[in-house]
Specification:
The structure holds two protein chains of two kinds. Chain A is an alpha/beta fold. Helices cover about 35% and strands about 20% of the residues of chain A. About 5% of the residues of chain B have low confidence. The chains are: A alpha/beta, B alpha/beta. At the A-B interface, helix 6, helix 7, helix 10, helix 11 and helix 12 of A face helix 2, helix 3, strand 12 and strand 13 of B.
Chain lengths: ~550, ~300
């Protein structure tokens, strides 16, 4: 029963009774005390470890909405517009011209020894105004070796002639095969029916790969580097193999994060799904927590697939798509609520938010349940009236703050317009109403880095430097709470994580600078190390 | 056997909105037993009603039946699932594919027409004629409903028997105006329930809940979606008759006399009440009672009222 005491430059606890401290005392993997050494001494013998004496400690960061796909997708070549860091810590600069995309593809082809396809990801055509990345451009890299670029949306891919000819795509009758005025495929394949022949022929299974031990370890490494100690996989297939893989991998002593997977409800009959979660919960241990269910109702605003109320999109189609009939979502909410499980519901557009608020009201009228903490995820366009209803329902929000930086400029000019961008990701309104909320990155959609996410919620700066909706900015303190205790509350895990409080697990983020006192932007605060259950983790 | 040597899997595509009868159709095809070596790939796996005597094995989410057929649920990534199925050591010769309620038939028809290892044999959309107007006028889903009607060569029409002749003719004309080339197939009404009935004091016939209560088990709850208005007087009488196995019922429903008025229903063995309820809620009935054949019979009887 050893007590280790870590003196630090400053400790931020997120515990309202005791917000700051000098020394952190850890015993048996839990927090024993955050106090002066004189006070800690009363607990008996201790060892002092001064390695963090010039560092700032805060609760281990909690990423309440991201995907284990982040651990698998880096096996492919990154072609995104923005700089991104892979799980090994290597920085991949964003690619902003067609030529740099071609160079990156050529360089990878030269390294690739197998004859298999060159697969790339992260490309987002929304940033390439006028310049087309198409078959012709990929053929200039190679006409013989198959090249497949999966777009950031995952709903579109671009392929070269080698792929088109091998698969006979030019003679297939599929609406999703985009053709030029002469009827020749341009290389763009839209949506699953047109992409299936490529996935099938080259054996590409992105989501299957995300459940392997390799992907789970890479995912955890990427998270740990950013100060995360609890991470979610918010759309898990929960197959027997996936559960076994998660159970075995997270149980490894050196596995550096706690993992919270959510059942993908749309893949299951509700009865089977709730039974599956109950069965999986028998596997729960300190680093693996089953018990939440994810429902994905609509698409994404930047893809014009989120369901919007009037006046819809600035350009593009009039409205987005439902992933299932609204009645199915009503029935699912009823079922999983009644089954006592916690729901996390993807709702990007305000029409999707409205539908789910009504479903939750129906379920709660029928089956009142205190402290259910059903959480609406993303809620990018939630309206003020809807925030009030969320508050009265006792529901939580997890808000996609990173969108402001990555797509804010696009939302102002192409998808939503000025007014709706003032309320985009309304964290300050959620805070004013006293709604429990977290903020998130949805990796691999945007990079895994809660301090960057907090920076977005605090500054509301777009990539071009415009401030979007100043009234919805929150203070550094509230932003830091949202990436620790707030996120832990949305996962119903705040009894054991989210703050540095006696009895909770000793999960700590160790920072180079003071995020409250420093002039440094939150995104630039360095993460020195993390501690998980008292164990200092590193690569 | 190599990929090349295998015959393509013949696909029967079943489309249609939620509640259009796709699962009933698949249950019917399974029970009929005339298909051989077929795989039923279904959305709502748990709702399939497979006779336990037909099942020979259940493994990795696939239920194998003694007539050589099998059933499995749709997993999240359909592409990976289709790739997997065609590479099974013994792939099926026929795939009966139940599309999602919001799926548009055309891309799926094209997919099965083009995908390696598959060949589209037939495609049909199931149409609940009594719900057609509601679906086509719901702004959230009208475009999908219309695509489900226009994209396919065959429309299989059900729930038409109770409609007045004039309504049936009007709805049929509407279908023909949307898709004049489609073959219309009229499904016969479902078979009567195979449960012994007893006369109740209300002169309606209900299952003998006293007899069925003998094999009742643990307390359970069932949630029923109520897609249509029903005779709420009859429902109350049915709930009273089910008192031997029913502890509580509550929900929101509409009576066929005043279908525009939503009623909140509360029922206990001491009695029940229906109260008009303002606003638009989902029509749903929750039953709490004893698990077993009595509960199954109660659910079937309520469904028969719809």
């Amino acid at each position: 029963m050893t007590t280790i005491v870590y003196p630090a430059r400053r400790i931020y606890t997120m515990n309202p009774s005791q917000p700051i401290g000098d020394c952190l005392a850890v015993r048996d993997g839990r927090i024993l005390s955050v106090a002066s050494l004189d006070e800690i001494r009363r607990f008996g013998d201790y060892t002092i470890d001064k390695r963090f004496i010039d560092k700032v400690l805060m609760p281990g960061l909690v990423e309440g909405h991201s995907h284990a796909l982040e651990g698998a997708i880096w096996d492919f070549l990154y072609l995104g517009w923005f700089d991104k860091t892979d799980p090994d810590g290597r920085l991949w600069p964003g690619l902003r011209e067609a030529e740099s995309i071609q160079q990156a593809l050529s360089a990878r082809l030269a390294q690739q020894t197998s004859e298999g396809p060159l697969i790339a990801w992260g490309f987002d055509p929304v940033y390439f105004d006028g310049e087309r990345i198409d078959r012709r451009l990929l053929d200039a890299v190679s006409r013989e070796r198959p090249i497949v670029i999966i777009h950031a949306s995952l709903h579109v891919m671009t392929v070269n002639s080698a792929v088109i000819e091998t698969l006979g795509l030019d003679v297939m009758e599929l609406d999703g095969i985009v053709r030029d005025s002469g009827g020749v495929p341009t290389g763009d394949l839209l949506e699953f029916p047109a992409m299936h022949p490529v996935f099938d022929n080259y054996g590409i299974d992105l989501f299957g790969a995300a459940t392997t031990p390799h992907a789970l370890r890479q995912y955890a490494r990427a998270a740990r580097r950013e100060g995360i100690t609890t991470i979610t996989d918010l759309l898990n297939p929960m197959s027997a193999n996936a559960i076994e893989s998660m159970h075995a991998t997270t149980a490894e002593p050196e596995y550096p994060v706690r993992l919270v997977p959510a059942l993908n409800a749309l893949s299951w009959d509700p009865e089977e799904g709730s039974a599956c979660v109950r069965r999986a919960m028998a596997h729960n241990h300190d680093k693996l927590h089953f018990g939440i269910v994810k429902i994905v109702t609509d698409g994404a605003i930047q893809n014009f697939t989120a369901r919007l109320q009037w006046p819809g999109y600035l350009e593009g189609p009039p409205n987005g798509v439902w992933n299932a009939p609204p009645e199915t979502f009503h029935a699912m909410v009823q079922h999983y609520h009644q089954a006592g499980l916690q729901l996390h519901i993807h709702t990007n557009g305000d029409e999707a938010v409205q539908m789910i608020i009504e479903a939750l009201e129906d379920a709660l009228a029928m089956w009142p349940r205190p402290d259910h903490r059903h959480t609406l995820q993303h809620v990018q366009l939630i309206r003020q009236s809807q925030l009030h209803r969320v508050k009265s329902l006792g529901a939580c929000l997890n808000i996609f703050a990173n969108h402001i930086y990555y797509w804010g400029d696009i939302h102002r000019t192409r998808t939503l317009g000025f007014d709706r961008c003032q309320r985009l990701e309304p964290v300050a309104s959620a805070d004013r109403l006293g709604i429990t909320f977290g903020i998130h990155c949805d990796a691999p959609v945007t990079p895994l880095s809660p301090l960057f996410t907090a920076h977005c919620a605090h500054t509301r700066e777009t990539a071009s430097g415009v401030v979007l909706g100043r009234e919805e900015a929150i203070s550094r303190a509230r932003a830091l709470q949202a990436i620790t205790l707030g996120a832990a509350e949305t996962l119903h895990l705040d009894h054991c994580i989210g703050s540095l409080e006696t009895g909770k697990w000793a999960d700590v983020a160790i920072l180079d600078d003071d995020p409250m006192a420093s002039d440094k932007p939150l995104k630039d605060i360095g993460v020195h190390a993390t501690m998980l259950g008292g164990r200092i983790t590193n690569d | 056997m190599t990929d090349m040597a295998r015959a393509a899997i013949d696909v029967r595509l079943l489309c249609g909105f939620l509640g259009s009868g796709k699962t009933t159709r698949i249950n019917h095809l399974i029970a009929e037993g005339t298909l051989r070596d077929a795989l039923f790939l279904v959305n709502d796996f748990g709702r399939l009603n497979i006779d336990a005597e037909l099942i020979t094995a259940e493994e990795d989410g696939i239920v194998r039946l003694n007539n050589g057929c099998a059933c499995c649920g749709l997993s999240g990534d359909l592409s990976a699932q289709l790739s997997d199925i065609r590479r099974w050591p013994s792939p099926p010769t026929l795939l009966v594919f139940e599309a999602s309620g919001v799926a548009r038939p055309r891309p799926l028809m094209q997919l099965f027409g083009a995908a390696e290892g598959y060949s589209l044999g037939s495609a049909e959309t199931l149409v609940d004629l009594s719900a057609l107007q509601r679906l086509l006028h719901d702004p959230a889903i009208a475009d999908i409903t219309q695509a489900q009607i226009t994209d396919v060569p065959r429309l299989r029409i059900n729930r038409h028997a109770k409609l007045p002749g004039i309504v049936r003719e009007r709805e049929t004309a509407l279908l023909k105006s949307l898709n004049s080339a489609a073959e219309l197939v009229w499904d016969s009404p479902p078979k009567e329930l195979s449960i012994t009935y007893t006369k109740s004091s209300e002169s309606a016939v209900w299952p003998d809940f006293h007899a069925l209560a003998a094999s009742a088990g643990v307390i359970t709850s069932r949630t029923l979606a109520l897609p249509r208005a029903l005779d709420s007087q009859q429902l109350m009488a049915l709930l009273d008759a089910a008192a031997p196995i029913l502890l509580r019922a509550k929900g929101m429903l509409r009576d066929c006399e005043h279908p525009q008025t939503l009623l909140a229903l509360q029922w206990t063995p001491g009695g029940g009440r229906r109260t008009p309820f303002p606003g638009a809620k989902q029509d749903v009935l929750v039953l709490i009672g004893k698990e077993g054949p009595g509960m199954d019979a109660l659910v079937s009887s309520i469904e028969a009222l719809l």
